[in-house]
Amino acid sequence: MALWFSASAIVPALVGEFKLSGFAQATLTTGVQVGFVLGCLASALLGLPDRVDPRHLFATSAAVGAAANALLLVVDITSPVVPLLRVVTGACMAGVYPVGMKLASTWAKGDMGLMVGILVGALTLGSASPHLFNALGGVNWRIPLGFASVSAVVAAVLILFADIGPNRAPSPRFDPRMMMQAWRDVPLRLANLGYLGHMWELYAMWAWIGVFFDASFALAMPAPSAATAAKLAAFATIAAGAIGSIGAGLLADRLGRTTLTIAAMAVSGTCAATVGLLFGGNPVWLVALCLVWGVSIVADSAQFSASIAELSDRAWVGTMLTVQTALGFTLTLATIYSMPFLISALGWRYAFIPLAMGPAFGVYAMARLRAHPRSVELAGGRR
Predict the structure, then answer these.
(1) How many domains does the chain have?
(2) Residue 168 DSSP one-character state
(3) Mean pLDDT confidence for 350-371
(4) Domain around 224
(5) Could you tell me the maximum CA-CA distance found in the chain, to the nearest angstrom?
(6) Which stretch of DSSP H or E encloses residue 84?
(7) Structural domain contains residue 383
(8) Is residue 118 part of a domain?
(9) Distances in whole angstroms, Cα of residue 106 to Cα of each of 143, 274, 308
(10) Nearest to residue 206, comparing CAs of 270, 126, 139?
(11) What whole-number distance in Å separates Cα of residue 326 and Cα of residue 330?
(12) Is 216 part of a structural domain of the chain?
């Protein structure tokens, strides 16, 4: 997952060297989102996560994604080839993220939330790692790109040593119509709507928090230390989600999926609405709030996936998870691309406030799911 934000993390350096426009900056992330959605749709239509050995699909996807990311080191960053390479990288991530969740779910034994939570925690650390590579690499933006590709190659090798758990159902027949089950089935629809509310906020925050810190610290700190501090703060904010993901996995298996997701979205939505008030102020307070935001914004992520895994026909879990992620990442295109316009119109003080609408809608959807009779299928009856 280091491939995902490998380009987004180096936006300040690229802007300084190549004078990229706001649209070009957003494309470095949204290209991955577009590719991911296209990859998910193709994967779901073909039923690949449920009909192909998930380890082989994961390994191939990670290796090809690493190659596409590495090509950024040799092409002109301002050329049209760059968005295309980001699209290819995103398509490859469709063979990593939902497939990894499917593989983790085959090992669940009364602890689905924890199993998927551990995986999403690892995915969160991977997504955050380019910001750390960037800080350690100094001004040379090629270093984090190279590290990201190396990380993905290592992942492609390591996944081949994983086993498939006992919960894997026999491969189903090819049936592209199963994609629509994610909407026709009411509990699945409500879980997916809750996930959409979560995704409205998540990737816009992840994609732009580094730029936000860079602008805020430039006003509050000496110039030589501000840039490095911003990179480390962005890494810490995103990486903190790993704590939230694993911790929430433990709690959700005991307290219930809807309870956990509603609480997490209430906290993250509040952070989105208030973080701008600290822009340009004391970095300590700003980072403290962003760490809370980083924990809460991911705490619910794995539980939406766990809910889909528990509410779906076991033979089609991989496809349902792929459909869910495709829907969510399609929505992220709107918020990631809208951020430059919101920043221009509202300034950093208020630009994140519209993101709070997503968690508010997600709370409503999960409250509806909690009231549905089939919610007893979640977390062993702990809704």
Answers:
(1) 1
(2) P
(3) 96
(4) 8-163+177-376
(5) 62
(6) helix 81-93
(7) no
(8) yes
(9) 36, 40, 14
(10) 126
(11) 6
(12) yes
Residue 93: CA atoms inside 13 Å, Cβ hemisphere, count?
Answer: 30
Query: For 74-114, how does the pLDDT look when each residue is reduced to its tens digit (9 = 90+)?
Result: 998 888 899 999 999 999 998 998 888 888 888 888 788 88
User: In this structure, are residues 172 and 333 in contact, taking their beta carbons and an 8 Å threshold?
Assistant: no
- Predicted structure pTM score: 0.81
307-327: b (≥16 Cβ within 10 Å) or e: bbbbbbeebbbbbbbbbbbbb
Contact 78, 20 (CB under 8 A): yes
Question: How many residues are given for the chain?
Answer: 383
Among residues 289, 326, 330, 321, the alpha carbon closest in space to that of 303 is found at 321
**Tens digit of pLDDT for each residue in 309-353?**
889 877 777 778 778 888 888 898 888 889 989 999 999 999 999
Please indicate, yes or no, if residue 172 is contained in any of the structural domains: no
Residue ranges in 108-141 assigned as alpha helix (H):
112-137
- Say how far apart CA 317 and CA 329 lie, in whole Å: 18
Tell me the average pLDDT of the chain. Answer: 87
126-144: burial string, b at 16+ Cβ within 10 Å, e else: bbbbbbbbbbebeeebebb
Instruction: Write the CATH number for 270.
Output: 1.20.1250.20
